[in-house]
């Protein structure tokens, strides 16, 4: 598996991964919905902007997973918003690549990238029942809020730990 930085040319793939993330339990949303929903679009529009970061995982040169973080302002907050200087992550793995450690390796790589960029932390939202919660907890994310049936989780990086 190879991991590379995501860029604007990856937006069609990121769109598919966002759909995978939304449909983690069953097919609840469509690509048309992702494209038309204002809240879903904010995870993609203008990517990458200042403060964003992202990675794509490839197997045999084909993209199979991605993780990206958007540093959204409070007035355009996403589901896992904590602060404007803490990017909110979206992570997804195509079904054929699941169960092979792709998600864990990608998450570890984006955490390393956030620390290299001296970001104070990373946040995300995870719905009740989503098995990815264990992945996030194992990486050090902790619950800092709750909205409906989802928890907001935060990982403070070494750069974010204040003496």
How many independent structural domains?
1
User: Which CATH architecture?
Assistant: 3-Layer(aba) Sandwich
Largest sheet: 4 strands, antiparallel
Tell me the structural class. alpha+beta
| Percent helix | 25-40%
Beta-strand proportion: 25-35%
Going by CATH, the homologous superfamily would be Gcn5-related N-acetyltransferase (GNAT)
Order of helices and strands: EHHHEEEHEHEE
- What is the averaged pLDDT score? 92
The level 1 CATH classification is Alpha Beta
CATH topology: Aminopeptidase
Radius of gyration: 15 Å
Q: What's the N-to-C terminus distance? A: 37 Å
- As residue ranges, the low-confidence spans are none
Got a strand count?
Answer: 7
| Morphology | globular
Count of DSSP-assigned helices? 5
Describe the strand arrangement of the main beta sheet, using strand numbers.
1-2-3-4
Describe the structure.
With 163 residues, the chain is an alpha+beta fold. The protein has one domain: Gcn5-related N-acetyltransferase (GNAT) (Aminopeptidase, 3-Layer(aba) Sandwich). The protein has five helices and seven strands, in the order βαααβββαβαββ. The strands form two sheets. Strands 1-2-3-4 form a four-stranded antiparallel sheet, with helices on both faces. The chain is globular and about 35 Å long. The termini are far apart. The model has no long low-confidence stretch (mean pLDDT 92).
């Amino acid at each position: 598996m190879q991991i590379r930085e995501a860029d604007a040319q990856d937006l069609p793939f990121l769109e598919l991964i966002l759909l995978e993330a939304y449909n983690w339990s069953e097919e609840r949303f469509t690509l048309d919905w992702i494209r038309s929903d204002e809240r879903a679009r904010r995870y993609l529009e203008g990517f990458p902007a200042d403060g964003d970061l992202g990675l794509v995982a490839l197997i045999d040169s084909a993209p199979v997973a991605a993780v990206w973080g958007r540093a959204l302002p409070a007035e355009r907050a996403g589901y896992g918003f904590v602060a404007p200087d803490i990017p909110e992550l979206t992570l997804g793995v195509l079904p054929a690549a699941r169960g092979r450690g792709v998600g864990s390796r990608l998450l570890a790589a984006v955490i390393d990238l956030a620390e290299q960029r001296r970001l104070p932390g990373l946040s995300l939202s995870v719905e009740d029942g989503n098995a990815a919660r264990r992945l996030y907890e194992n990486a050090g994310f902790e619950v800092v809020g709750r909205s409906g049936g989802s928890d907001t989780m935060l990982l403070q990086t070494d750069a974010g730990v204040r003496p």
